[in-house]
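Two proteins follow. First one:
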Amino acid sequence: MSFYVIIRGPLGCGKSTIAERLSKELNAEHISVDHILDEHDLTNDKEEGYISQRSFKKANEMIVPKAKEYLNHGTPMIFDGNFYWKSQIEDLIEKLNFPHYVFTLKAPLEVCIERDRNRNKPHGEIAARVVYNKTTEFDYGTLIDISKPLNEAIKEIISYLP
């Protein structure tokens, strides 16, 4: 069955780790929106001090053809990213007319800062705070408490999927 999952949340909350593990568990393809933004130099166009909605929609345009290919062949897709503009989520959903599930990962700011600090290449506390503030302005989809161990969060997400 074709479906896709959007994993969204603040910097350092475990999005990529969860998306990678989910893609293995579900035999799905994984696309990191943050990597697409970096690879295609889409991070410089700013809006309100953040990467612009326009840049995120351009990233969506880039990932949709590949995603449709996989989905049309029955392979699930996992997308992860901050998704801090509601318009970006809605644009992706509009472009990918398949069953979908959106999960917002929730954790205290201190947890996100600590997880970022423990990365090979941390983004830093200021970046973590800025992205946290923007990402947590709204909730979308199913909320997942990820202040608990990531394995528990992954099991919870899978429980919502077909």
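Second one, unrelated to the first:
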Amino acid sequence: MSAAMEPNRPRMFKVIVPIEKKDGTKFWMRVGSAFPNKDASINVYLDAIPVGQNCLQIREMTDEDFNRRRPHEPPPGAPAPTSSDLPF
């Protein structure tokens, strides 16, 4: 099910840019987020401005994107981290 189809989830978009690697392949780096307005316009918020790139894409967030947003949260049922687990 796409993020737009879930009844309690607002439509959200990711802003991505293609980055060419040394071997000639590309990967897509997320550089921001976008949100639709009531008048069908879209607000775009950039966290980074890619230099030398002339292509930005806006793609709707998927369930996988939403699940990936919280990498620091422990899985359900996991014990809470203690201060000795912190690297600093």
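SUMMARY FIELD: The chain is about 5% helix and 30% strand. The radius of gyration is 17 Å.
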